[in-house]
Design brief:
Main location: endoplasmic reticulum
Number of strands: 6
Shape: globular
Protein name: 7-dehydrocholesterol reductase
EC number: 1.3.1.21
Order of helices and strands: HHHHEEHHHHEEHHHHHHHEEHHHH
Keywords: Cholesterol biosynthesis, Cholesterol metabolism, Endoplasmic reticulum, Lipid biosynthesis, Lipid metabolism, Membrane, NADP, Oxidoreductase, Steroid biosynthesis, Steroid metabolism, Sterol biosynthesis, Sterol metabolism, Transmembrane, Transmembrane helix
Membrane topology: Multi-pass membrane protein
Length: 434
Amino acid sequence: MGEGKTVHSPLVTYGSMLSLLTLCPPFVILLWYTMVHADGSVLQTWNYLKQHGLQGFVDIWPKPTAVAWKIIGCFAAFEAVLQLLLPGKRVEGPISPSGNRPVYKANGVAAYAVTLITYLSVWWFGIFNPAIVYDHLGEIYSALIFGSFIFCIFLYIKGHVAPSSSDSGSSGNLIIDFYWGMELYPRIGKHFDIKVFTNCRFGMMSWAVLAVTYCIKQYEEQGRVADSMLVNTVLTLVYVTKFFWWEAGYWNTMDIAHDRAGFYICWGCLVWVPSIYTSPGMYLVNHPVNLGIQLALFILVAGITCIFINYDCDRQRQEFRRTNGKCLVWGKAPSKIEAKYRTTSGETKSSILLTSGWWGLSRHFHYVPEILASFFWTLPGLFNHFLPYFYVVFLTILLFDRAKRDDDRCQAKYGKYWKSYCDKVPYRIIPGIY
């Protein structure tokens, strides 16, 4: 199968799987508890746990309630229906290692617009109060932790019993199969793509929905929305809007085209994104900061600039690939390397690698504005507590790891061509430094 073996060695897989399974679920709950009930103070939570020990931790872990399951169920069903029924352009993904080409329906922007308009409408007309979501957040995260684990078991069984395409298979090791996934493109029926659902329509969509939820909760509690919360929410929504605008491009990335649908990526999108990625806003609900118009505008403009650069990096490479290098990059003809590689079936194919524009600065320069953007939408909380910045730290580690994995994969795929590419673009992420 290859993918399970090349991602990381079995030892690293066991280590990361055990740590994810044992550390991430309690971390999600502790983060929520600290933000919502311990004033955002890690020290306060630490002292509580020191005093009450393991029993204290068991006491703060919310039990999944019927309300939580209902909220998750309605949201998931709503997104699944939109994914299936909304019209969208037919988009082909990249050719897989087994020579398959997945076909998608690109209706992300429409689904995003319908979701936000519906959510704001049900609040506005008094049908459902989003503050309820905030009030049951702990139970929702608890339900997601267990529910997503069961969902990953379903994916594992499906990979064995009814794989959707020939891009699936076992490494012969149950733990590696469960963790890294069995199938590259699992589907339910012909049209419902599971990874598009978990990564985009549940994970990313919940990020936007929760950002709006935190805003509404603060408004209901305090009668106004602080400028810090507005800056955080606007930047988050601009970022998620950019994501859906570029969703078809995302289907060409490592998450979709190389990482299989297993615990690592699906549990991450179903649990980690709604809890950790939204945490700066979660913190601001009870800790409104008044930035003043100048600082608020500065953070907003800086954040939007970073999001735009991140988008423009992806757009530049997409345009370069679409036109087969016959386009302008920063006003002149792009410099490129023509690389050859062999597929698993032994065919020789060629590819072009862009070495100018943003992609001439470093091999993964697009991660720099992404990390900076996350810093700017956390910044409105200022520096009273470290915890809101956990997401920025986590994202930095994640992207640096991803850059290394991507480089290793390209090295294996392109060989000598990759070496000449690295000679031309020597820096991995930060130009001049790393």
